[in-house]
Amino acid sequence: MTNPSDQQLACTDASIESIQQAINQLLNELTPSLSKKSESMASDPISRVHHCIGLVKTDASLAASLIADCAPQGRPMLAQAQQTLKSLESLQLLGQAAIKAD
User: Fold this and answer.
1) The whole model's pTM is what?
2) CA distance 35 to 74
């Protein structure tokens, strides 16, 4: 079991570069297809996550219009977009907090 001072020390050991690498890795694990679409932004992972959030919101809008048109694939598509959006927003929040803390 680690004590709080050990956890604090580990936190301060994280560099901006290692935080950025972690964000990119998590983005790839959460949404491989979006990660691939935003590879050119890997040097700025917070902006990259923000860009991916925009892409997911576009997908959610498309899903909403499919639902309005009574298309059966709209509901699962919207549910997936909402789940992905929640994960990306969490990643963005953690990334911003980690970079500010460093």
Assistant:
1) 0.81
2) 23
